[in-house]
Structures are given as C-alpha cells and as structure tokens.
Amino acid sequence: MAQLRQEVDPGEVGLDAKALDRLDQYLAHYVDEGRLPGYLVSVARGGRIAHLTTHGRRDIAAGLPVEADTLWRIYSMTKPVTAVAALMLVEEGRLSLDDPVALHLPVFADVEVYDSGSGDDMKTRPPAQPMLIRHLLTHTAGLTFAFYHSHPVDALYREAGLESSVPSGADLPRTMEVYASLPLQFEPGTQWNYSVASNVMGRVIEVVSGQPLDAFFAERIFGPLGMTDAGFCVSDQQAPRLSELYGEADRGGIEPIAGLPLHGRPRFLSGSGGMVASAHDVHRFMELLRRRGELDGVRLLAPETVDLMTRNHLPGGADLRAFGSHPAHDEPGNDGIGFGFGVSVVIDPDRTLAPLGLGTYGWSGAATTTFWVDPDRDLTVQFYTQVRPKTSHTMILDLKKFVHEAVTG
Questions:
Q1: Which residues touch 302 (CB under 8 Å, ≥6 apart)?
Q2: 385 vs 54, 62, 70, 231, CA distance in Å?
Q3: Phi-psi region of 259 (alpha: psi -120 to 50; beta: other; left: phi over 0)
C-alpha cells in the first residue's frame, strides 16, 4: 500500500496557501451542512503535491475519518484508463483507431441506425459508415445510456434492462449482444453522446489482448505505474479503507446507498465505470499523462499518443454544447469543452464556466469525484467524496475556480 503525502510547500511552486485554505473552508462547509460525508483534495505543481487535505468521514455511522489512503469508487474516471489501454494496443499494432468495431466484435456487424418514430413504429436503417474504434473512444459511436429519457432509443435501452448499463447477471460478452441488438441513435462519427461506449471498448481490449480486462489493467497499467490499490474489487485487507457510498436524500442531507459490488471479482468488468482506487493511484495515473506517457522510467505510451488522446476529436472541432445538453456528472456547463479519447479537453477557455487553461483535460465520476491536468500551468488536481447527487450542482466548478485563484506564478 502506498499513500499520498504533501511533498512541498505551496509557495515553493507558485501556489497561494491562503487561497488553498479558502478552498478547504469552502469544501468543509459542505461537510458541516451534511451535504458531503467527507472529502480528499490534492493539488500538485510539476508533479509535486503542494496541497493535500482530508476532512470529514468515509463512513459516518462507523465514525471513520477520511484518510490519505481511503479507497474511492471512481466510476467514470475509469474511462481514461480504458482509453490508455486501447492506445497501448494501437501502438503495438494490434488495434487501429480506424478498425470497424465489428472486426473485433462481430456481434456489431448488423447494427442498425435510428431513422424515425418510436416504440413499435420505430424505423431503422443500415449505417452509411461503420462504427469505428475511434468512435468508441470519443463517444461519437451512436450508443447511449438508458437513463437519459431524451430519445426513443433510450427507451429501448430501458426495455432491454440496461438501467445500470448491464443486463442483470450478464458478463461483458453477453452485454455486447444486448447493445448490438439495439439501434444506434445516429450515424457513427457525426454527433457526440456520452454512452456505454467505454464498456464496448473494454470488451474490444479483452478480445484483442486475449486477457480479461481486469488482468490487462493490472499487468499492463496498474503494476508498472505502482497503482497499488486500483482494481475492480477490494480484498479483505483493503475493505476497511473503502468509503461508504451516499446519495442525496429526498428530505435533505445524504443517506447510504448501494454501490458497485466491490467485494469479490465482479462478473461484469466495466471499462466505463467499474474501478476503485486511492488518491495515490490516480496521482500516478495523472503523472503518466502529465509526463506524456512515461513515469519513473516506465513508458506506457509515446508522447505523441498522449497528445492525440488529449486533443479534441469532436466532429468539426465543435464543443460538447453543439450536440445538445448531456452534462458529465457534476459539471453543468459544456461550453468551450471538447472531447478527446476518454477525457474532456478545454478548447476555448473564455467560454468555459470554470477558469481552466487551454488544453486542460480530465474527467469526473458519478459519486462526485474528479481529476484534471492543466498543461499550461503544469497543474494536476483531484477531488474525492462519495455522494451520488440527484441534481447538478456547482461544487466541482467552484473547486476549479478556487484552484485557479491559488495559482500565483
């Protein structure tokens, strides 16, 4: 077990300690109001941790505090890890970004595209172009989520039992069969829709590598990077460090809710949202990306590949707002934000709702977790709590504003 520690005083790396104290006070107020159980936040400059705060409880009923080695369900922060795994296979020549998905998953060979209507009156047609690997990585494949309630195809996902993105009791291969039996919302490569695409990418990784997704991650990414707690489940030794998961209660405040089945290897290995990790683990992963594919003498990706991953790939160079409102978890604004391979990318800082440098990339998770890397400021930030909100709020946007105010040079 490795643990995150503060390595340098904020002033030594151009950060204002008083501004970071204001950040802590702001976040502590959420805990004091009963809106968060507790949290961890870390800010690093040049790879060195200059601010690390834990506050509140990881388990309210048990009275257990948040600590630097607390384990968190990171949900959709799994997606960038899946993207790195896919790009490793691309570099090895075993996969191409322009491969049709059906080349590796034949079950998608006859997938249809939505044309018109709904329910029994829905009409579909063959796609004009195939769904490609790059479409999975950018969420431009035409796939969706059951919980959107914004398109007739979303309803088909619910009818197929995909409320949690996986049919009850299914594994990855069976889930692919269900996804492929449903029409795409749009022609692949023409629009952006946050979706189950990373689960499909996870299955492609399994087929191409010949390994289960958890084994590939452990052997090719977690082990080499020293991500000692990361995985799809927790051991008996790790379990006491796992934070309780909470949801917003109807009467106000928060209450415990069921989370990912992390005790024992899950049947369904979700490349979309299945991981648990510590702040140390994600710091190591952020460092890999900040250093453009290398960390402590271990190179997983070429610098040019990380540059490609963290560049906007949306059709026409558009931002997310151009394709309608599908906010990513806690972030209510998509203006000025593009999307790369598994990460959002700032393409117009003047239009974003939070002050971030051009090219800043990262992603968030459903339990109010987030990370970002700001190359212009050589800044990496991560935040964890364990609350699944019912509505969007501004906490993560405000977090970004406080961190921006702390940068003095």
A1: 91, 293
A2: 10, 16, 10, 18
A3: beta
CB 20 within 8 A of CB 10: yes
Helices within 211-302 (DSSP H only): 213-217, 223-225, 279-290
**What are the structure tokens assigned to 155, written together?**
């309803």
- pLDDT tens readout for residues 378-401: 999 999 999 999 877 788 989 999
Phi and psi based region of residue 227 (left: phi greater than 0; alpha: psi -120 to 50; beta: remaining): beta
Distance CA 397, CA 354 (A): 6
For 275, list phi and psi in degrees, rounded to 5. -90, 155
Cα 140 from Cα 312, distance rounded (Å): 12
Q: Provide the H-helix boundaries in 146-278.
A: 152-159, 172-180, 197-209, 213-217, 223-225
Label residue 322 by pLDDT band (50, 70, 90).
Answer: confident
Nearest 10 degrees: Cα torsion 326, 328, 331, 332: 10
C-alpha dihedral (29, 30, 35, 36), degrees to nearest 10 = -120
Structure-token match 């959709």, residue found: 76
Measured torsion, CA atoms of residues 309, 312, 314, 319, in degrees rounded to the nearest 10: 140
Size of the chain in residues: 409
- Whether the CB-CB separation of 372 and 44 falls below 8 Å is answered with no
Q: Which of 323, 368, 408, 325 is nearest to 38 (CA)?
A: 368
Rounded to an integer, what distance in angstroms lies between the CA atom of residue 342 and that of residue 76?
A: 9
Torsion angle defined by CA atoms of residues 139, 142, 145 and 150, in that order, rounded to the nearest 10 degrees: 120
CB 87, CB 309: distance < 8 Å: yes
pTM above 0.90, yes or no: yes
Contacts of 261 (CB under 8 A, 6+ apart): none
pLDDT at 269 over 50: yes
Looking at this protein, which amino acid is placed at residue 141?
A: A
Supply the pLDDT for residue 2. 78
Beta-ladder partners of 138: none
